[in-house]
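Complex 331.
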Amino acid sequence: MSISYKELGLVNSKELFAKAVAGGYAIPAYNFNNLEQLQSILMACVETKSPVILQVSSGARKYANATLLRNMAKGAVEYVKELGCEIPIVLHLDHGDTFELCKECIDSGFSSVMIDGSHHSYEENIALTKKVVEYAHSKGVTVEGELGILAGVEDDVVAEESTYTRPEEVEDFVKRTGVDSLAISIGTSHGAHKFTPEQCTKNEDGVLVPPPLKFEILEEIEKRIPGFPIVLHGASSVPVEHVNTINENGGAIKAAVGIPEEQLRKAAKSAVCKINIDSDGRLAMTAAVRKVMAENPGEFDPRKYLGPARDALKELYMHKNKNVLGSAGKA
Ligand code: G3H
Ligand code: 13P
Ligand code: ZN
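Predicted structure with zinc ion bound:
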């Protein structure tokens, strides 16, 4: 039995992206795998009146069960009503790697899917993406494609170095596939170690400062497909305070470096209208859990450590919406 996202009260990304591009802000795309992550995303987005993209990876589907996740998204729509603010909610498949996975998600209530064909040849990427677009559009579901490869791990594929998006390909790719948005590679990467210490300089406090993103590539892309919605993956900033809290409380996260907020603010003002953040939430949550555990070694009620983790996550997401992406007040 197939379920439409409309029955769940979700929306696709079409109108949200059009408004975000015109308004010079980006919609947050936050990954979730469990109840506390979902609660904090929703509480933060309701409180800041921000539209939101709830992002589910194939790892999340394996971890949390696809049926439960779908019903959590349905619950999310009812929950935000209860909180008194009906923000638009998109349920999005993050890094879909096959037509079959995208179809399964579309048939089970997702309103948006990513088909990440960037590890294939250009022509194979086009063929795969087009096939997903044809099916998705027949159901009103929007599709994100990708051109260029981010350094780090994508779909269990490890790339040593980024292959930046080639601006000369974007127009052809968008035209031939019919995608609704395009993820690009301009120097971001997944995880908490986006740059090696050798790639960075140090500021006066000894904090590693990464090289800037390749804004010249973004500008060239914008010239070729004006106003087309662009997506930035790997956009966590890796807040030093959370890394320090983790390390001060028994953790060992070394030389972690993210994307400075200033650069994300700049990107959000451009055609970048969706910014993906997962690692920052993982760090905030882990920092809070480690702190409670270290300070209260006798604690064994999960609510006593997941509750503070949820509060820390909510604060992080509110900060992103208000001070980095500019999505606050846009619901
Ligand atoms: O892009 C990757 C996201 O952070 C999801 O990560 O595949 O470990 O769930 P995951
Ligand atoms: P981060 O690892 O930088 O949070 O990126 C997440 C992401 O791109 C999910 O698709
Ligand atoms: Zn990603």
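The chain has one domain: 7-324.
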